[in-house]
């Protein structure tokens, strides 16, 4: 492992203090950061009525902001996504009359964590914190693997150095190991401690602590793989590394060229580089890098054909996007739209109702959810729609407004979205098939009821009475017919909402720009009873699926069942973490996270594909997936009580067509979340790899109750890199868990039938 080479020990009155000179502390001389380290009183704002002063201070590590409230709290800079300046949150907007914009700023976190809204005492003080946090975010992003490791060690050292004397005695080391999820034999711990204590002072200082850490984290599992290909046991020659890439990583003809690239990129020893060789340190750095990860980095980038009809893509989609919590009393917020769009969502939902003063509002009707202005939602959409992806956003409109307020909605859409709103068919031609994401780059498409069709004349009436909205068909409160204004109708082009009658009716009468919405139960029944017809229907028209109205807790259904029949817009409650959102994040992690994933060719052409009988399709070949779960590294603690250590197990779950659904798990390892070793192999048969997702879950085993979730990673089967790979685990919120990973060996082969 690379060691921490830039630590100085300062001696003052026999006290030893660590000073870590890491690359990110190039900011040590930065005036803004020095002011932040001195601290300041800032107002923490939670609502118009809750505004309290707290003392905030940047810690010496340059990565943690500490604040004092009833009890001490911390903010890790690594968790902060962006700093917004001024009244750029609903909470700060609500107090705009009390605090001017130049005093206000917002820390926006990754994942589902709520924003932190702050108010400074003066404009200059606000600017210090805005500039300072932005610099820290940039420094964190630019850290290399060695610097991240240095930071990780320093964080743990600070936690374990209870008396803050800058040294670690044996008792503190024992405490540190428990904090790091290690239940190590005391005799063995003392042996490592004594070996590292070169000064024989009974404490670890400076490089002694680094030496102890290196002994503690020695990767025997990686060393064994290295030894299998190294003739002298010390280095891998270029030829030996090429052989490893061919035999284990299945890289084929490019292995020689790639071997040289890996040496140039990851080998820390200049001498080894000069001789075209790789040491164990370089080998391990490669294996833990993105190139050594399970997800092929080439498939992370935008690489798919984006010129096919919209109906040929799975589209990342959100249900009741405005809600931050449950469906009955949850908060409605513009922030929910921002978070969904930042996750690559390309279909957002707006439920519109008549509001006061002629202003339409957005909320979940007939509930106690809070209300926000339609105007503010569209303004948010205009600002954030294309920050993550340039491909089209579908605005799914649930319209419950009067004719007057529908006209207001149409005017707001027109004036706020401007040229980004698609108002007419491309080239003014009547479409025979849907346009492509490429054709519709930078456009917002309105999905709603429409008077007549795209090809009909302008002589239609100004309003029409039509069926109730999609999600209200089963709602007894909304059984009355509703009217739609011509102004709003004219803004609907390629996503005209229609009632679904039958697949036969759609085949004979429906236009390509007409689409239907299905409740999860109705869609599941159609998928089970008429799967092949559903697939064929979805090759030409868009289908939207939404959660059952019974899911008042904002829980989610399994989206895989609907992807199996080609449904494009499978809408989920983005605010609710869990396996269903893990699958969604996993599917859309590929292709540049652009929110569009091209469906397999057998779901786009005229071939008859039945997910219940995958073996009947042309070119059918099943695959064997073999996963050797070797080890884990720095797994997160679940219970933060002192002395608590996890008993981890790994479960591998396959999601896909019915025949591919499977789960297997390893045994659990007693009291070791730091470097558990399993060496267990799990085998699966996959019939439709093009649709399969593989989810790796790590849990803390509990014999008397339900296991506790520790981390997960979900990957499309077609994006898996075979060979020795690291799986970098994500939290329940989908954010990275620093240095936490699994080490696996993956083999994929065609299944042969023995005669």
UniProtKB/TrEMBL annotation:
Span of domain EF-hand: 148-183, 184-219
GO CC field: endoplasmic reticulum; nucleus; plasma membrane
Compartments in which it is found: Cytoplasm; Endoplasmic reticulum; Membrane; Nucleus
Binding locations of Ca(2+) 4: 645, 647, 671
All residue ranges annotated as the PI-PLC Y-box domain in the record: 488-604
Root EC class: hydrolase
An annotated Gene Ontology molecular function: calcium ion binding
Domain PH, residue spans: 34-138
CDD domains attached to this UniProt entry: C2_PLC_like (cd00275), PI-PLCc_delta (cd08593)
Binding positions for substrate per the UniProt entry: 447, 449, 517, 544
InterPro entries listed in its UniProt record: C2_dom, C2_domain_sf, EF-hand-dom_pair, EF_Hand_1_Ca_BS, EF_hand_dom, PH-like_dom_sf, PH_domain, PI-PLC_fam
Membrane topology listed for this record: Peripheral membrane protein
UniProt entry keywords in alphabetical sequence: Calcium, Cytoplasm, Endoplasmic reticulum, Glycoprotein, Hydrolase, Lipid degradation, Lipid metabolism, Membrane, Metal-binding, Nucleus, Repeat, Transducer
Comp. bias regions, Acidic residues: 457-474
Cofactor note: Binds 3 Ca(2+) ions per subunit. Two of the Ca(2+) ions are bound to the C2 domain.
Cofactor(s) required for function per UniProt: Ca(2+)
EC number in record: 3.1.4.11
Positions contributing to Ca(2+) 5 binding: 700-702
Region feature (Disordered): 457-480
Catalytically driven reaction(s): a 1,2-diacyl-sn-glycero-3-phospho-(1D-myo-inositol) + H2O = 1D-myo-inositol 1-phosphate + a 1,2-diacyl-sn-glycerol + H(+); a 1,2-diacyl-sn-glycero-3-phospho-(1D-myo-inositol-4,5-bisphosphate) + H2O = 1D-myo-inositol 1,4,5-trisphosphate + a 1,2-diacyl-sn-glycerol + H(+)
Glycosylation: residue positions: 199
Residues the record lists as binding Ca(2+) 3: 320, 349, 351, 398
Any Pfam family hit: PI-PLC-Y
Top-level lineage group: Eukaryota
PANTHER family per the UniProt record, alphabetical: 1-PHOSPHATIDYLINOSITOL 4,5-BISPHOSPHATE PHOSPHODIESTERASE DELTA-4, PHOSPHOINOSITIDE-SPECIFIC PHOSPHOLIPASE C FAMILY PROTEIN
Official protein name in the record: Phosphoinositide phospholipase C
Organism: Oncorhynchus mykiss
């Amino acid at each position: 492992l690379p060691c921490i080479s830039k630590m100085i020990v300062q001696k003052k009155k026999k006290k030893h203090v660590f000073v870590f000179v890491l690359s990110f502390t190039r900011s040590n001389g930065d005036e803004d950061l020095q002011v932040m380290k001195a601290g300041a009183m800032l107002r923490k704002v939670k609502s118009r009525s809750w505004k309290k002063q707290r003392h905030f201070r940047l810690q010496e590590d340059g990565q943690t902001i500490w604040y004092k409230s009833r009890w001490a709290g911390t903010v890790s800079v690594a968790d902060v996504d962006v700093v917004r300046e001024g009244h750029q949150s609903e909470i700060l907007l609500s107090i705009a009359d009390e605090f001017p914009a130049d005093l206000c700023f917002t820390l926006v976190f990754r994942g589902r964590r709520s924003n932190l809204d702050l108010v400074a005492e003066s404009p200059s003080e606000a600017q210090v914190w805005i500039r300072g946090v932005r610099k820290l975010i940039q420094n964190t992003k630019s850290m290399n693997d060695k610097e991240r490791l240095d930071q990780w060690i320093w964080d743990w050292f600070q936690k374990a150095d209870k008396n803050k004397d800058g040294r670690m005695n044996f008792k503190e080391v024992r405490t540190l190991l428990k904090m790091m999820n290690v239940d190590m034999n005391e005799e063995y711990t003392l042996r490592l401690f004594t070996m590292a204590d070169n000064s024989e002072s009974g404490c670890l200082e400076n490089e002694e602590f680094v030496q102890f850490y290196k002994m503690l984290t020695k990767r025997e599992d990686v060393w064994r793989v290295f030894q299998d290909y190294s003739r002298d046991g010390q280095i891998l020659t270029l030829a030996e590394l090429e052989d490893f890439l061919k035999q284990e990583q299945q890289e084929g003809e490019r292995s020689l060229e790639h071997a040289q690239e890996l040496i140039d990129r990851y080998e820390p020893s200049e001498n080894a580089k000069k001789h075209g060789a790789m040491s164990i340190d370089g080998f391990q750095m490669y294996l833990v890098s993105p190139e050594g990860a399970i997800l092929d980095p080439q498939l992370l980038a935008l690489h798919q054909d984006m010129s096919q009809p919209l109906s040929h893509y799975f589209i990342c989609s959100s249900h009741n996007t405005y809600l931050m919590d449950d469906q009955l009393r949850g908060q409605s917020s513009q922030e929910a739209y921002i978070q969904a769009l930042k996750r690559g969502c390309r279909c957002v939902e707006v439920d519109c109702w008549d509001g006061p003063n002629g202003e339409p509002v957005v909320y979940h009707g007939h509930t106690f959810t809070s209300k926000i202005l339609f105007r503010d939602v569209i303004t948010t959409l205009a600002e954030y729609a294309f920050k993550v992806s340039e491909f089209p956003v579908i605005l799914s409109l649930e319209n419950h407004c009067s004719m007057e307020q529908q006209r207001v909605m149409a005017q707001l859409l027109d004036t706020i979205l401007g040229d980004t709103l698609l108002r007419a068919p491309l080239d003014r031609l009547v479409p025979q098939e849907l346009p492509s994401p490429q054709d519709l780059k930078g456009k917002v498409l309105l999905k709603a009821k429409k008077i007549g069709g795209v090809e009909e004349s302008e002589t239609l009436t100004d309003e029409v009475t039509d069926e109730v909205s999609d999600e209200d068909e089963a709602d007894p409160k909304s059984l009355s017919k509703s009217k739609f204004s011509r102004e709003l109708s004219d803004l609907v082009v390629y996503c005209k909402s229609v009632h679904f009658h039958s697949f036969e009716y759609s085949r004979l009468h429906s236009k390509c720009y007409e689409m239907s919405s299905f409740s999860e139960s109705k869609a599941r029944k159609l998928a089970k009873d008429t799967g092949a017809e559903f697939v064929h229907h979805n090759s030409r028209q868009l289908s939207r699926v939404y959660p059952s109205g019974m899911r008042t807790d904002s829980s989610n259904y399994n989206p895989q069942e609907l992807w199996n029949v080609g449904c494009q817009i499978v809408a989920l409650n983005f605010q609710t973490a869990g396996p269903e959102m893990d699958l969604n994040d996993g599917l859309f992690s590929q292709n540049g996270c652009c929110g569009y994933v091209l469906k397999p060719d057998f779901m786009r052409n005229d071939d008859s594909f039945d997910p219940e009988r995958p073996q009947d399709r042309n070119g059918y070949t099943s695959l064997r997936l073999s996963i050797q779960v070797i080890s884990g590294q720095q797994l997160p603690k679940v219970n933060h009580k002192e002395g608590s250590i996890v008993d981890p197990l790994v479960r591998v779950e396959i999601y896909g067509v019915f025949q591919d659904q499977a789960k297997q798990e390893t045994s659990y390892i007693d009291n070791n979340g730091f470097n558990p070793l399993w060496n267990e192999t799990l085998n699966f048969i996959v019939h439709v790899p093009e649709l399969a997702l593989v989810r790796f879950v790590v849990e803390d085993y509990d014999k008397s109750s339900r296991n506790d979730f520790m981390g997960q990673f979900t990957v499309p089967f077609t994006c898996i890199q075979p060979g020795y790979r690291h799986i970098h685990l994500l939290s329940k919120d989908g954010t990275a868990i620093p240095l936490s990973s699994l080490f696996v060996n993956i083999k994929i082969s065609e299944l042969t039938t023995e005669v």
